[in-house]
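Tokenised fold entry reproduced for absentees:

. . .
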Amino acid sequence: MHASACARWRRSLLGGAVAVMTAAVTVCGLTPGPANAALALQEVMLVGNNWEGVADVIKPSGTFARIGRINLIPDRNERLREIYLNPIRLAFFLGIRETVGEGHDQYIDDMYSTPDGSAIVVSRPSFADVAAVDTATGRLRWRFPVSGFRSDHMAVSPDGTRVAVSASTSNTVHVLDITTGRQIGSFKTGDKPHENVFADGGRHLWNMSIGEVNNDFDDPSQDWLKGDRKITVVDAATFRRVKVIDMRPRLDAFGRRDLSDAVRPVAFTPDESRLYFQVSFFNGFVEYDVAADRILRVKTLPENPDTSDDRRTFVNDSRHHGISMSPDGAKLCVAGTMDDYATIVDRATLQEGPLVGAAKPYWATVSGDGAACVISESDADQVTAIDFATGRKITSIPVGDHPQRIRLARLPAGWTGTTG
């Protein structure tokens, strides 16, 4: 979620948007717990440890100290029994482990809290689902199996009531009621839908499809074998397509035929007039004028001399993966995944600051007070905060196995973890 949407979402939660769990949930035959009265909430950061299935909860600014932990796969044994009894699902489960999972099962891709903080909603790629885990008991509240065999990135609407999830093997985005898990709607995308972003105050939903990232057809001459990559923009109320943006002709017109058109993580300016995005195989990012529908600038960031130029060695085709923007729109934070650094970039000049060493940084988000960028160091099992003003490292906090997505959230005040 970009900075302006994050701010609107935080305001909606603080403004008392507290869902009451009264409706029966039809998804998987589960029912929620008793209705909850409005509780005082604390802002936190959720750190999803993808290979462990546990989320660390840390303070959203200041010391970024750990508050507690929560197991987001309490139903692991049940899910594994289902998978091993279904040969087709088992084949995909093992395929995820050996390809995108780098030899590991993928238990947590993305996660958000419900508006009242009573549950964490998580996409679980290896289980091909979205699930809600009760923050008080650690128990499963509801579960939504996505179409196909793998779930991926999510986005939450500015009012906190809807969550969109990419079903990467069925080229579909599902939009769910975040409290009940009921599907509100869905839409088709390009090949391998990835990042989702609500825009225009929640009126539109953008999806970026990245194509096939698990084959070795990585040479530019083989680019056509990567599939149909595009941005799909839909009306968030009707899920009807508003427009489709193919970056291939736009990159070509800018003179960058060498760049992939697979759009990875993105960041909007606060007024949503500019979109900054990363593409496969590239150490840098692209600036795009939304209204004019054209690319304005391309920024190449430094290469790590120890990083191989063999594209087949890049994790899921992503040389750099993770970009966020300071709330005032003045600075960008870029995670140089395969180049083992992160850096703060001045948006006006595109001049990068100090290269902050990091072990395979996989995501970048903004601290609760807006003063820092927080990256996940997936190879070091820690998160690191970087000051937007100076570009210097503030601190690093140990977390679990292979942290990836980091999201601001709200949990009940005084929450310190569950044993579920």
